Structure formats: structure tokens, C-alpha cells
Amino acid sequence: xxxxxxxxxxxxxxxxxxxxxxxxxxxxxxxxxxxxxxxxxxxxxxxxxxxxxxxxxxxxxxxxxxxxxxxxxxxxxxxxxxxxxxxxxxxxxxxxxxxxxxxxxxxxxxxxxxxxxxxxxxxxxxxxxxxxxxxxxxxxxxxxxx
Amino acid sequence: xxxxxxxxxxxxxxxxxxxxxxxxxxxxxxxxxxxxxxxxxxxxxxxxxxxxxxxxxxxxxxxxxxxxxxxxxxxxxxxxxxxxxxxxxxxxxxxxxxxxxxxxxxxxxxxxxxxxxxxxxxxxxxxxxxxxxxxxxxxxxxxxxxxxxxxxxxx
Lengths: 146, 155
Description:
heterodimer; A: 146 residues; alpha+beta; Tetrahydropterin Synthase, Chain A; five-stranded mixed β-sheet; elongated; B: 155 residues; 26% helix
């Protein structure tokens, strides 16, 4: 008998937002040294791409892991509406306490999407530009799962 | 030094494209329920996509050839098993492996996995990724391969 397979459904979304990388724990000069151009006090922006993977049983009556209309509506209300055309440092509550690097944005998006009720969230991938991307799967470092 | 190789797992990916039409319709649903659940995809005339398929094979390189498997062999398998079956076809009616299923990206990817798994004899089939559009795609892994974290894949 063939082993059963595991399916991940991926969907790609976009939002545009500005941020500034600045750590309250570092001095002005240290911030400039660590963050370079990203420390500009006026901030700057990116066209972010967010890829979301969910898994679960394929419903035989629909052939789907999750209805894309449900996933799209959830991502729209949890991520796109609050993040798109915003200044992340000020307008996303979590980034008043943490620095909105792409790493932290990826984790925050994962945490928000974990509440999706119709499938299991597997992974979030964020492209900050076409040249750098970040993935988070909610795992503890060094832990692999069978 | 010959015979002194580290056994390193390498992941090799080959990409193909095929174009096909489909529609979503469950005969057990009413006409109204079909429209509600499947939306535009329920159009009885069907519609089509340019599918992009990425097939990843994992294995150790053969020291004699430096290859996991011959790409030409993989290309021929993909042509025979996938392109010949699905390219420029109406998936609901012309692909027997999909009979009785809704030809969603999930189900097509699973069928492709089933068609390829036993044909890849050098290395093993690790992942099938099927893009229906650039914004919608499905990854299929074998349960025995575990999650993408299995076998120390560097991510």
C-alpha cells in the first residue's frame, strides 16, 4: 500500500507598508551602525509579499483543504486590512514593543493567522523585496517533526 | 578521494508547464450550492490555467556520474506521465485518474504524486509543487518523507 501523502495549500498575498528599524536599547550612533539606511528617522517602505501555507484533510465533496474564499477573507481582515498602506511601527500595536524587521513581521503574521478556523497553518513566508525572504513555521529552533 | 564520499542528500528540481481546462461541480450539491461553494469555478463551460509543475527528487549523487538521476530520464518521465495526460486536456473528462474527483489544485497534485512516485527509481520523489496561478499552489509530500524538516534539509 502506498503511504499517504501530505498536502500544503499555498496562497500568495501582497501589502505595501513603511517601517523604521530602530532599537530603543541602542544609542543613536549604534542604531545607525546596525541598521544603516533602514534607521532613517522618516522611515521607508516596501512592497511585501506574503505566502501562507495551510494543511488538512481534502474534503472529498469539494476537493479542497480550505475554501480559498474563506482563506482570502481571513487574511484580508487579519493582515491586509491592518498592514496595507500603514506605518508599521506606529499602527501595528505589536511593533510599538518590537522592531518591525521582516523576521518579526513574519512571526507576527504567523501568530495572527494561527487563528484560521478551517485548516492548520503550516508556514508563512514573507518577501520584503525580491532579493530577501523569511519563513516561519512556529517551530522551536532545532526541533524537527516527523 | 574516490570511495571517500560523504553521503549528502541533494534535492534536484525539474519544472514543466502544461495548460488545461477544468470546472468544479459536485453532482451531490444543488445548482445553487455548487455556485455558492465553487463561485466562478462552477461555470459549466469550464475555464483553464497554465499550470507550472516543479518536481523535486532527493538522493545522493552517484560518484560515477555526479548526478542524483539523469535529468533526461526525469524529463521523459514528466513528459509521459504528466504532459501526455494533461497538457491541452479538459481535466474533468479526459484524465481517468481524476474521474469522480473535483480537479482542484490539491487533487491534481495528489494524482501527479501518485503517477510519479513509483517511476522515480533513482533517489526518491521528495516534493511535487503545482502552481495553478502564481498566487495559488500546492505542495505534496510523501508521509514517509515526513515534513519538509525531515532528513536535515537546510531551510
